[in-house]
Amino acid sequence: MRKTLLQAILIFLLCGLSNAHADQPVDRELAQANTLFSEARYSEALSVYQRVLNSRTSTIPSGFTLTRIGDCQFRLADYQSAIRAYRVALEYQQGSDRAATQFWIGLSTFLLRRDADAVAEFLKIPELYPASGMWVSTAYYWAGKVCEHMGKKEQAAVYYRNAGGTGATTQGRFALKKAETISKEARVR
Asked: What is the spatial distance between Cα 162 and Cα 139, in angstroms, rounded to a whole number?
């Protein structure tokens, strides 16, 4: 009995050590990619993140790696590719990570000058992730900003008010003031 138990433990440890050893190159590559990203060397970081994603031995969550790929593409102003990476990342993410990724989809869409689509993307955050805290008010704020950009002042004011909430924070008071200013401008016209 002891011998069988000892053999099972030994096999378990050997398998665990071989898996840990297999992940070390991927971990080093991820660290390298993160360093390149922090140094604003986005093209180089992108290729390393793609290698990490395609690694068969990687235990790094695909959602994280895909988000970093999207982040590189966003910073390289390849917004369409960033959106694709972020959308796939959403499939692997959980919780508040999804709201943040959805925000970057909205911002990328706005930067592609697809304003109506950007508003729709921002509004997915309060709809799909209502418990995501500051991402909800941030999404409403940006939906307001895009509506204002489109000349839809009344709708912008509504979104700014939603972003402002009770006005308990500096950002909330700013959004409420913006809503008030836009509403006054609309009444003057």
From this structure: 10
Same domain, 89 and 117: no
Contact 64, 49 (CB under 8 A): no
- Domain membership flag for residue 3: no
pLDDT in tens, 135-183: 999 999 999 999 999 999 999 999 999 999 999 999 999 999 999 999 8
Which residues contact residue 86 at a Cβ distance below 8 angstroms, ignoring those fewer than 6 apart? 66, 67, 70, 101, 102, 104, 105, 108
Structural domain count, the chain: 2
Residue 175: both structure tokens together: 């959004």
- Minimal CA–CA distance to 144: which of 156, 135, 155, 133? 156
This prediction has a pTM of 0.83
Has residue 101 been placed in a domain?
no
Same domain as 176, residue 136: yes
- 54 lies in some domain: yes
CB neighbourhood size of 96 (10 A): 14
